[in-house]
Amino acid sequence: MLWARELIARRAPVRVRHVVAPRDELTERAKAAYFGLAIGDALGATVEFLTPNEIRHQIGVHREIIGGGWLRLKAGQVTDDTTMSLALGEAILAHGSVDAKSAAEAFDAWMKAKPVDIGNTVRRNLVLFRKTGIPEATFSEHDAGNGAAMRVLPVALACYGQPEKDVVFSNQAQAHVTHNNTISDAACETLIFMVHDLFAGRDLAEIRQQRADALVSRFPVFAFNKKRIENPSGYVVETIQAVFQAFFSTETFEDCLLDVVNRGGDADTTGAIAGMLAGARYGLEAIPKRWLSAIDGKTLGQCSAQATGLLALAGCAT
Ligand code: MN
Ligand code: MN
Fold this sequence. Notes:
Layout: H1 2-9, H2 22-45, H3 52-58, H4 80-95, H5 100-112, H6 120-132, H7 153-158, H8 164-175, H9 182-199, H10 204-218, H11 236-249, H12 253-261, H13 267-282, H14 289-294, H15 297-313
One manganese (II) ion binds near residues 80, 117, 268 and 269.
């Protein structure tokens, strides 16, 4: 299946850039995306809620995984962005597909285990799920935080190669547990399709046009070519704007993450999302060894196992 799809995806005018075993490369990119998520989360958490000026005064350029921050993390410790993704990935693997009830139960168990941080919308709607048993939050114009977008990677992995409408359906199953919101959905879907395109080795200019610019066409609020976003809030629009500015203006994994986390604000979440995209784009070899070795070993093991397990679920076993 993968071979056929890659051939279709790479048909002219897309240039075939490398002739290597696609499945091995896919697994490597999947692991890199998951490691990137964890690295961006751990790196950004140190400066979460600081302004760029505060970062400059306190640290200079923030470039090492040192823990601390308002959560007083150990160096290499990750936050909700990574642990909710892992909880969702476990639920998808256990159920065999993305399922709203399984996801809600996994998130609820995650919340019971007292995570180091938790978003307000996530908490409110999980408390409601606990009361009602309904794994879908009520539609809300206000629930446009980045809490669903930060945890899309396991869906992207489990749905790799599926028709777009099925991917959209699967994402909504997980996202609506806490964020039932049109803007959040659009952001989640765009991120998932970008991860798929990056896995397939598609041309970056095309990805920008067909995914990022297309998102802006549908929802102009996401326009990211105007002013530089600094101190991005937890509003998913600002998150995506900061991530896209960093992702499309840099040429290495490291530069992308340094760019985005030094903007401060919700830096662990912009870091996690940018790290996911950059991992998928640049692959394992491009991840600085000092960052990889700084991340808690158990977390890395879970990321790696889920990357292969979820791809296998998608029919892309190595
Ligand atoms: Mn977090
Ligand atoms: Mn955050």
